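If you are new to this repository, start here. Below is one unmodified record pulled from the training split, so you can see the exact layout before writing a loader.
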Amino acid sequence: MPNMPDKNFATTGEEAFKLGTHNVAGKTPLVLNIQEEKEQAIILEKEVEELAEGGFLSRIIKKINYYFLSHSTISIKEKATFFHLLSVMVNSGIPMIKALRSLMVQMQNAPRLQLIIQDLSTAIERGSSLSESMLVYPNIFTEAEIGMVQSGEASGQIDSVLESISLDAEKAYDIRSKVKSAMIYPAVIFSLLIMVVIGMMVFVIPKLKELFENVPGGLPKITRMVIATSNFMVGNWKFLALGFIGLVIFFVLFKKTDFGRYAFDKFKLKIPIFGSLIKKSYLARFARSLSNLIDSNVSILRTLEITANSIGNEVYRKKLLLAAEDVKQGIPLAENLTASDLFPPMMVNMIDVGEQTAQLDKITMKVANFYESEVDMAVSGISKIIEPVILVMIGVTVGTVMAAIMLPIMKLSNIAGVL
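And here is the target side for that same chain:
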């Protein structure tokens, strides 16, 4: 079994981790040789000197800053840029360590990524491969990316694999951005609408209520309903606020449970209008991951396991893990996916053709391109559908409140005109 890199202690005093070697079975460090002990002594001496020069507080602040940087994530766009530039440099014949150091200098505006690149170059300099050094950052690099890099290293095609990962990250970024943009607009409008209604109920209606008390013949039913709602909100605002906070906390904690994640991810696939868009984005992600991993000579079984753990949806994850178990028993992938409503018949048929012709990587790439174009069309279609729906919601809500206010005022005006 290969040795696994691990973060143990600093090599440069304040920025880099020493990547030690662990016995995987026993989880204990192997005995350091004499040369490593000398290096460790030099490192310790350097740290003591830096501590004396910089001061204890400065040292602690830098350590804390480094900890948070090393445990944070980077954006998909930053990751796509990193893999693309690394691919270009490696393809140009630049050694991996030199390419990483050059990238580290260029990433001045991305300190988190800069720190990660520094750790990667340090690990490779100490004898680890790129894929092994990436294992230190499971919150940054997915299983699919690490698996592809590992296959690229074994086949000697690391430059083309890095470019494939870059394109995959860019596609994932584009799809995620389009899905978010389609959902942000109605979410913002709906939130603003709720805030306006709450503001009117809490601040406007209570002041008008005193005026409406003197309306002869009583108030219209719609006005009485609005005033009753306003009285309830003003009189119970503490309980309503606590209830809202409690719901938010419950939702956050519920989502952290296995059942909660599964239920929420299943709900996302069934949201009216948006569910179809979200489903297509997962199908595109599944097909592209399948194609890239198989093209990188990863076995179909391992491909399904990696894709399941990186797809980002518990419903699809569980289904793909079950499919992997069936594939292990000799059942074709297409036959397994046929029984599920998560995968459209067209996709299943194309996967079946890919399995029969031994061109599953090429076929699934076509499927990925198809569903990515479907996401584009779905986003534009949703924009056309959602705008009139939002306008109707705004009209009904604002119209109801305005009618509740204007009807008593008009009644008072008519009485004043008669008098």
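Two things worth knowing about this chain: Strands lie at 4-10, 17-23, 28-29. The radius of gyration is 30 Å.
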